[in-house]
Specification:
CATH architecture: 3-Layer(aba) Sandwich
Shape: globular
Oligomer: single chain
CATH class: Alpha Beta
Largest sheet: 3 strands, parallel
């Protein structure tokens, strides 16, 4: 997808979130936004929807796109989206390290992610980045989507984010 956008003249930047705290993920996003020249469309999937909801109030952000992502309102957190449990959240695939970082059990990785070859699934399971469980409790102060054009792509066969959350 980024090849198509780049070919059509769009500049693509990717935020590498540290996943150690919600505030640090928002700061990392704002750091990349500060490096952009011109209006920005923020696109996010899953937990990153909460991040762009908080970070997207920066004046350079022209719009937000949520792809099977959380889109909390003021005073809400990603954890509030659990009122629409997903297949993943009802499974035993989510594990927690002793210092409270979440990850997916590699043995149960495949059913909750894209249709990929066995080699791709194995690589994705081995290379997953653990996320501080506390990140899911980061509270939104001013939701960017309330004041900027925003779209939600609802993935009807999504197993990690319940499609009802997007609706």
């Amino acid at each position: 997808m980024s090849d198509i956008l780049t070919r059509d003249g769009y500049h693509i930047s990717v935020v590498q979130q540290p996943l150690t705290s919600f505030q640090e993920d928002v700061a990392a996003t704002k750091r990349i936004l500060a490096l952009q020249d011109g209006p920005v469309v923020l696109v996010a999937h899953s937990y990153s929807g909460s991040v762009i909801t908080e970070a997207g109030t920066v004046p350079s952000v022209a719009a937000l796109v949520y792809v099977a992502a959380h889109m909390p309102d003021a005073g809400e957190s990603e954890a509030d989206g659990k009122r629409f449990p997903s297949d993943l959240s009802r499974s035993t695939a989510i594990r927690l390290t002793p210092d409270s970082f979440s990850y997916r059990n590699p043995a149960q990785f495949h059913p909750y992610f894209a249709d990929m070859s066995a080699e791709q699934v194995a690589f994705a399971a081995r290379s997953q980045v653990l996320i501080a469980n506390a990140n899911f409790s980061g509270v939104i102060t001013t939701p960017a989507w309330r004041g900027k054009p925003s779209w939600m792509v609802v993935a009807t066969k999504e197993r990690v984010i319940n499609p009802e959350l997007g609706r």
